[in-house]
Amino acid sequence: MTTVLRSCSSRILSLHVPTPSSSIPKTHTLSFRRHPFSHSPSASLKTLFIPPGIQPDDVTDSTILPGSNIVVGPYAGEAKIKEVEFVKSSARARDCPVDDRPEFAILGRSNVGKSSLINSLVRRKEIALTSKKPGKTQLINHFLVNKSWYLVDLPGYGFAKAPEAAKMDWSSFTKGYFLNRNTLVAVLLLIDASVPPQKIDLDCANWLGRNNIPITFVFTKCDKMKVTKGKRPDENIRDFQEIIRENYKQHPPWIMTSSVTGLGRDELLLHISQLRNYWDQ
């Protein structure tokens, strides 16, 4: 399915969004291609994320970011975070900053490690303080990176002890943000790799897909490779991908991360850079 991300200055970016197969029309035009490739170009080439400007025949092992299905293309550029500043917290989508800067929203369950990932990305512990009470933050928080793009911290979802009213408020204003934010380039949907696939995460992914919101699955806590019971993170990731493949005709981009070891940090920023640079043109 093709999504048109509306933007200020009348710029238009068409993205092919990985959408649940039940809602994909029979005909559609693609300008931002996410080909159904596999993780290795030497295999059946079914689940790789191919960015603009690169052809499938040009894909090699060296062009795939480690611990991901993301191919690096010509739009990848400066990925370092040189400065970051907190701009504002908004209780309503309509109160968010209004300008033409692209933004990337971070979304996930309340205990998925969202604040820790933000702190790891910007390397400033005071930017997104972690809370001992998951579900406490109920605001949309905008951080301006390098004075050129936004990293947006959205309220966590699915915390059982959060008040019912807070859950309803989250559902209302967060969905309003997704549906009406013209400068949203992509959602980084965080998935806890230390636990089996969760229905609430799959439901969230399906809702984003049905509403044509571009997503990247960011698997967190991938450093916890030793377990006493249950499956390892890599096995949980594999199970999650198997479920996604059942419902999506094109596999969304995904990447493994750890805020403890720094795994995937630079690769995720590089992925963001190529999406941002393509949006900026």
Automatic annotation (TrEMBL):
InterPro entries per record: G_ENGB_dom (IPR030393), GTP-bd (IPR006073), GTP-bd_ribosome_bio_YsxC (IPR019987), P-loop_NTPase (IPR027417)
GO MF annotations in UniProt: GTP binding; metal ion binding
Residues covered by the EngB-type G domain: 100-278
PROSITE patterns: G_ENGB (PS51706)
Cofactor(s) it depends on: Mg(2+)
Record bears the keyword Magnesium: yes
Alphabetical keyword list: GTP-binding, Magnesium, Metal-binding, Nucleotide-binding
UniProt key word GTP-binding: yes
Coiled-coil regions, chain positions: none
NCBIfam families attached to this UniProt entry: GTPase_YsxC (TIGR03598)
HAMAP family linked: GTPase_EngB
Protein family: Belongs to the TRAFAC class TrmE-Era-EngA-EngB-Septin-like GTPase superfamily. EngB GTPase family.
Protein name listed in UniProt: EngB-type G domain-containing protein
Organism whose genome encodes this protein: Crotalaria pallida (Smooth rattlebox)
